[in-house]
Amino acid sequence: MTTAPDALGHPPHTDEPAVARTYSKPALSAREIEVLRHWLRGDSKLAVAADLHIALGTVNTHLTRIREKYALVGRDASTKTALLVRALQDGIITIAEL
Q1: What is the pLDDT of residue 43?
Q2: How would you classify residue 27: left for phi > 0, otherwise alpha for psi between -120 and 50, otherwise beta?
Q3: Alpha helix locations (H) across the chain?
Q4: DSSP character for 95?
Q5: What is the C-alpha to C-alpha distance for residues 48 and 30, in angstroms, rounded to an integer?
């Protein structure tokens, strides 16, 4: 078996099973998860605030703290797209829920 990439740059084939990648998960509170899930499903921050009966500033605070917690474990979540990817990786939300 060769160890060099093929002509297209693909790694060589091995019979070894693929190793699942593990990620450090931040310790999000139940309320942070609830706010994140609402917001990721396409709701505006204002709609999230109204649905959860909290102030818009509180929604923003939760999202800021979620981003900070992801940064602490070395996983960027500075944009909504990045937060979506992290939530999918961590099982917080599924594609079917979006």
Answers
A1: 81
A2: beta
A3: 30-40, 45-52, 56-72, 80-89
A4: G
A5: 15
Closest to 54 in 3D by CA, of 35, 33, 28:
35
**21-70 tens-digit pLDDT:** 777 999 999 999 999 999 999 889 999 999 999 999 999 999 999 999 99
pTM: 0.77
Residue among 87, 32, 82 at smallest CA distance from 54:
32
DSSP state of 38: H
- As given in the structure block, the two tokens for residue 80 are 């909504």
Spatial distance between the Cα atoms of 79 and 81, rounded to a whole number of angstroms: 5
Give the chain's length: 98
Residues 6+ positions from 91 with CB-CB distance below 8 Å: none
> What pLDDT is attached to residue 42?
84
> What number of H helices and E strands is found in the chain?
4, 0
